[in-house]
Amino acid sequence: MKFSKNLFFAIIAIATLFVSCSKERNDPQPATIEGRWVGTYVNDASGNSFYYSFNIKAGGVIEEINSSGQKIGEGTWEIDNDILTAEYSWPGGADFSVIAAFYKNEAKLLGDWGYDDSATNGGSWEMAKVN
C-alpha cells in the first residue's frame, strides 16, 4: 500500500513538472531588409504585371535581378522608419526610382516605382523576401 501511495505521488509530481514548464515559442523573427526579394510590378500605362526582383545588399547597394537570376541594374538604397527608397540604373542609361513600405513581420515590400528621380510616375510593385 505504501508503494502505491509513493507511486501515486511520484506520478502527480512528474505531471505537475510537465505542466508547469514553459513551452518554447517559435515565433517568426521580423525580416531584415537585406536579401533577395521577388514579386511583380505593374506598368500604369498597360496595367499588365511583370516579374520584378531585387537583391538588397548591406552597405546600401541594390541590384535589380531578372527572372534568370542575372543582375540587370544596380544602384543605392536607404531605409528610414520602414520606408525603403532606392535609385538604380540599367546599363545603357535607363534610371529608376522606387519607394516602398517595409512590412517586417510579413517580409513584404509594397510600393511605387518611376523613371529618373520620380518614384511614382511608372506604376506599383510588391515583393516578398525569399532569403
Number of helices: 1
What is the spatial order of strands in the main beta sheet?
Answer: 1-2-3-4-5-6-7-8
Query: What is the count of structural domains?
Result: 1
Fourth-level CATH superfamily: Quinohemoprotein amine dehydrogenase alpha subunit, domain 2
Kindly provide the name of the CATH class. Mainly Beta
What's the Cα radius of gyration?
Answer: 25 Å
Which spans have pLDDT < 50 for at least 5 consecutive residues?
none
Strand content: over 45%
Binned, the helix content reads: 10-25%
Total DSSP E strands = 8
Q: What number is the mean pLDDT?
A: 87
Major sheet summary line:
8 strands, antiparallel, barrel
Task: Please describe what this structure looks like.
With 131 residues, the protein is mostly beta strands. The protein has one domain (35-129): Quinohemoprotein amine dehydrogenase alpha subunit, domain 2 (Lipocalin), CATH 2.40.128. Helix content is 15%, strand content 49%. The chain contains 1 helix and 8 strands; from the N terminus they run αββββββββ. An 8-stranded antiparallel β-barrel has the order 1-2-3-4-5-6-7-8. It is globular and about 50 Å long. The chain starts with a helix and ends with a strand. The model has no long low-confidence stretch (mean pLDDT 87).
Concise description?
The protein is mostly beta strands. It has one helix at residues 2-20; strands at 35-43, 49-57, 61-65, 71-80, 83-89, 95-103, 108-115, 123-129.
